[in-house]
Amino acid sequence: MTDQPDLLAQFSNALATRAEAAESAVVAIRLAHERHITGMLWHSGIVVASEQSLPRKDEFELVAPGGAVLSAKIAGRDPSTNIAILRPDAPIASPSIVAGAARTGAIALTIGADGTGGASARLGLVNLAGPEWHSSRGGLIDRRILLDVRLARREEGGPVFDASGSYLGMSTFGPRGQVIAIPTATIERIVPQLAKDGRIARGWLGVALQAVAVPDALRETADQSGGLMVMSVVENGPAAQAGILAGDIILSIDGTSAHRLRKIARHFGADSIGRRADLRLIRSGAVMTVQTTIAERHAA
Q1: Which of 120, 184, 202, 278 reaches 20 to 30 Å from 195, CA-CA?
Q2: Which domains are seen in the chain, by residue range?
Q3: What pLDDT is attached to residue 137?
């Protein structure tokens, strides 16, 4: 026997204590066929959830910490940042939320609701803590936080904690099935807007786009190898009113190369609505510029 402290046991006990304390931070959001996903309790009793996992309906049942079953209504959705909020019909105590700073290689503890008022826990690492990025739908995500952790579908939408118990964000499935965290800073920025308006305003051209290669004969004139082909145009939308046609290949928007959808997503934030934009494009073998006015995206 030795008098030296058992560091592994201390670490294990600390994680278990952290996970037990986190039970008060999650609710189960019941879906169909006895399935559920996880929601995070936020300020003022609001529940934050992964928008992509919530069916398109207005009311849900919640299983609160301890097992009480409540009803809740959708108060707002933003597909571009994958954040939705619900308001329970009875108050649920809100946890104290302290934002943490994600660091590559640091411990990440993800918490999910077990469906009965308790919680599940998974331990992993922050695989990558990078700069801000834009989703394919144009939402600004304050940091790219990629997690090296397994996540069950029922656990999506739960909080992610660092080793000190501070919030790194909300767990969700990102591009190519990767597990990511929507940062706490993004949630803090989006939730008040959703609580006020129920949605986040986004710019819109009214086109469906597909990445394509620029024809070889036009690459020197276009000065780039790829663009976005217009696959369809919404009737009476901004692009249609500007004369943009299916088959056009958009090369740039206001000077920003349009070879990838995410590359131009930042041009369609709330501040873009009503702004005129120059689209450089290829039509019938010629390079030309068309001007259009960005409108507000229609509600989904």
Answers
A1: 120
A2: 1-200 (2.40.10.120), 203-296 (2.30.42.10)
A3: 78
